[in-house]
Amino acid sequence: MSLKNFIAPTVFSLMMLVITFAIIGIYVDDQQNEIQQKAYSNKAKEIQDLIQTLIENKQEKVSFITLSLAQDDKLKKALLNNNHQLSYDGYLNALAKVSDFKNIWLHIIDEHGRSFYRSWTPKQGDNILEKRLDLQQMFKDPKPMQTISTGIYDLTFKSSVPIYHDKKFIGVFETIAKFNSIAAKLKHKNIDPVFLVDKSYHSQLKRPFTQTFLDDYYVANLNADPKHLDDIKQNQLIDYSHQPRHLPYFVDQQKQQLVTYYELPNVNNDPMGHFFFFYPLNKIETGQLSNNQFSLYVYATIGYLFFLIIYFYQLNKREKTQITEFNQRLTESVHQKTRQLSHQKYFLQNVIDGVSDSVVVYDKNLSITMKNEAAEQLIGLTSSSKQYSHDVNKNEQSRDYLETVTKCLKSAKPEKAVHHFIDQHQKSRYFEFTVTPLVDGSGQLNSVIQLGHEITNYLDIQEQLQQQKNDLDFIAYHDPLTDLPNRVLFLDRLTQAIHQAQRNHDKVALLFIDLDRFKEINDSFGHASGDLVLIECGKRLKKAIREIDTVARLGGDEFTILIDELKTNNVIINVVKKIIKTLSDPIFVNENIFHITASIGISIFPNDGTDANQLLQNADAAMYQAKEDGKNTYHFYTKEMTEQAYNRLLMENNLRDALDNQQFELYYQPQVDITTNRIVGFEALVRWNHEQKGIIPPDHFIPLAEETGLIIPLGKQIIDMASQTISEWHRANLTRARMAINVSAKQLRDNRFFHNLNTALSKNNCQSDWVEIEITESSVMQDPELAIQLLSKLRRKGITISIDDFGTGYSSLAYLKKLPITKVKIDRSFVSNLPQDKDDAEITKAIISMSQSLNLDIIAEGIETQEQQDFVLQEGCQLIQGYYYSRPLTKQAMTEKLESIRLREA
Predict the structure, then answer these.
(1) Which letter does DSSP use for residue 113 in this model?
(2) Residue 243, phi then psi, degrees to nearest 5
(3) How close are the terminal C-alpha atoms of the chain, in Å?
């Protein structure tokens, strides 16, 4: 082959190769530059969004603190009484400990625009309104306001809330916060901020010679890096950021940093703050095209070699010696390519070994074909095997770990999951895995690549942040001394309870509690002792209410209680009595004994108000009425309810006195057999012989005795008197009838009932078969199984049992058949309209028929006319009781009646 034939095509092909390499280089550089610009732009946008979010979050938190503290009653009382002893030092210190609020100031302005309180200085009384345009606007139209402003000290957030008392504007509560915490958060993210206040505010800044300025721009964050101030000045970044068509960032190649800027406008949309953020370029992921560039060079080289091979093959086809030489060159080229591929594989392994995340490639059989060093740790976690494959059924952790890989192989779609592992030290660790399918040139899925990284620390940080949020929420809605709900939370719950009561047509009660003479404790023993007393009172109030109710502390010695799902007013009285009693027990604090009383005001929804504030105001008014009534008492807002409560309390006290003074006596109404006109039994009916009111019927006091539990001692007295009377009549040979004694369900459930009954019978020498126990149908059906056990015990003793008021309840015939009863009494409500009322007549017939089928005695009560007697007799009922035969008589009158009957029969 001639040299001419060799040089010409070689030079030409080399020129084409050089041109191709140049085009590839230009293309890659252009793409790389575009990717870099996009990455810088994205990072600039990310930083700008971050500062915007931090500003909004700061404003929200500052507003939240302002709204919470502006409702404090102590604040309102201080403004109303011109009391300048107000202090929030404790609150600000507690806030600094549990949150990131380190630089917070509180400012209170009274209704005349004068400074009332500043947390940073004792100075007060100067006119703030003349200096503050935003306050002038608020005083014209009082409503919450958020601003970012430059004052005489710094660039600050301000949140201002108007304060009202009885709908009257009395001042403004203002929270002020610096940008320092925002700067700290940015530094934590490797962002060095420089906050500049616009030069137009230069004259407003106090003592400028003690502060840092950049030309006429004030540096708001004092810890700003001075090097960055020089960078802003040298690169003229302020002028650059004001250019009409400027990029959102500036790249300082010399110092390898990205500078992003953000302009903060004031309320008039004029410049207020110029923020510059410096971020290292080496932390920005720009992506690299070097691998692609290398591939393009390889492909170009391969094309170049292919061109030469074809050319020389055609050219030297006729020359065997040249063919041999060409083959030798080709073999060398193949060896070289093999070495290159081997080097490339080695290079690729080094690349993935340099990745901190786990990288594992699995084939269809779940065998590992490639992995990096970081993957070794996960392999040790998920399987004790050190081989490149996993037995899916080997253990539970392996199955969980490979589950995402299996899903990706089946679906040919990317999969992501979080897995929990227990390492060799029994420590919980969490990893996030992303599995992506790998397909060949024909689109066939041959393997998948799994990327994994540990997120245990991230989850721990999330948990800590959530706990901090919970702590802050608790501080915002609870009283810091007693841990009870504060006014904000209480009003929220009260509002919800009102809405629920409106839907369910229920009532809600609000109790306003003020400790009597509590100021004397603070004055005599100090506020520390007073605080301990308040804590103990809060605990006792919580124990005195139901689980569904709420107790809160409004401030000072004032507490409130929400009674939800109120069905009857008796619940209120029971709770109030329990509160007064539990507070009256001595409180021991530091070897001192305190006796606490309270005045309680009560308002009820919807009677005394339709919203939370109105109910609170009316309960407060009722509390003051209780104070005027002598303290240690309660008062309803509604006069009628107060009188009803007093009457009920008076009746209960009188009832207790009547039990102690034996004011109850028994009247006896005979039960008659119509066919023989003979007395076959008596019913003992209790009456209250009041010293002033005379005889009080049972329906006026028995329900109260049932509710208060006094029915137990009252029933004991009745059994004693009734058994004594029937025993005397039997032993005087005046009668052979039984004495029917009414017993309530509460008496039967009393565990001393049988003991008291046996004691009375033994004391009065009364036989069991002389006594009959009457129980109501409704009391039996409250717990039929328990009633069967109790009544069976009575029957075994020889005492007969009758069902009183039969037909008014909801008896089950199946249970009625099981009850050991001997007699059924038809209620007077069915008898009173006989025989005219057809419905009552049919019911009466059915009761008589059923009783006869069960072989039970039956008696009709309330017989007042001859027609009623004739009707029940005709239907098969021979026993009656009622005014037609005799009214209830005293013991003496009934004794005389029995003696006259005995004389007449003799």
Answers:
(1) S
(2) -65, 140
(3) 168
**The token pair that represents 886 in the structure block:** 């005799």
Q: What's the Rg (C-alpha) of the chain?
A: 48
Q: How far apart are CA 479 and CA 487, in angstroms?
A: 8
* Alpha carbons 386 and 396: distance in angstroms, whole number: 17
User: CB pairs under 8 A, 24+ apart, for 465-473?
Assistant: 468/98, 468/99, 471/98, 472/98, 472/99
Using alpha carbons only, give the angle 712, 714, 719 rounded to the nearest 5 degrees: 95
- Rounded-to-integer distance, Cα 479 and Cα 482, Å: 6
* 682, 894 Cβ separation under 8 angstroms: yes
Whether residues 407 and 530 share a domain: the answer is: no
SS3 string, 215-234, reads: CCEEECCCCCCHHHHHHHHH
Task: Measure the CA angle with vertex 714, ends 712 and 715; round to 5°.
Answer: 65
Phi/psi at 751 (nearest 5 deg)? -70, -10
Q: Sign of dihedral through CA atoms 113, 115, 117, 120?
A: positive
The answer for residues whose C-beta is within 8 angstroms of residue 476's C-beta and 6 or more apart is 64, 68, 488
Q: What is the reported pTM?
A: 0.40
Q: How many domains does the chain have?
A: 6
The pLDDT tens digits of the residues spanning 47-104 come to: 888 888 888 888 888 888 888 888 888 888 888 888 888 888 888 888 888 877 777 8
Which residues, in sequence order, are CB contacts of 160 under 8 Å at separation 6+? Answer: 66, 134, 135, 138, 144, 145, 146, 147, 172, 173, 174
Tokens encoding 361: 């490639």
What would the two tokens of residue 512 be? 């306003």
Q: Are 764 and 723 in contact (CB under 8 A)?
A: yes
Residues 362 and 347 both lie in one domain: no
SS3 of residue 721 by DSSP: helix
Which residues make Cβ contacts (< 8 Å) with residue 319, sequence separation at least 6?
1
Q: Give 39's strand partners.
A: none
Q: What is the pLDDT of residues 605-651, one digit of tens each?
A: 988 888 999 899 889 888 888 887 788 888 888 766 556 556 767 88
The one-letter amino acid code at 57 reads: N
From 49, 61, 56, select the one nearest 277 (Cα to Cα).
49
Are the C-beta atoms of 135 and 171 separated by less than 8 Å? Answer: no
CA-wise closest residue to 731 among 758, 695, 764: 764
How would you class 887 by CB atoms within 10 Å of its CB: exposed for 0-12, middle for 13-18, buried for 19 or more?
exposed
Same domain, 727 and 843: yes
Bridge partners of 147?
158
DSSP letter string, 459-470: HHHHHHHHHHHH
Instruction: Give me the helices (H) in 507-592, please.
Output: 518-525, 527-544, 570-584
Residue 843 to residue 829: CA distance in whole angstroms: 11
**Phi and psi torsions of 573, nearest 5°:** -65, -40
Q: To which H or E segment does residue 383 belong?
A: none
**Same domain, yes or no: 279 and 207:** yes
Residues 670 and 582 in one domain: no
Domain of residue 239: give its range. 189-283
Please provide the size of the chain in residues.
906
The CATH number of whichever domain residue 497 belongs to comes to 3.30.70.270
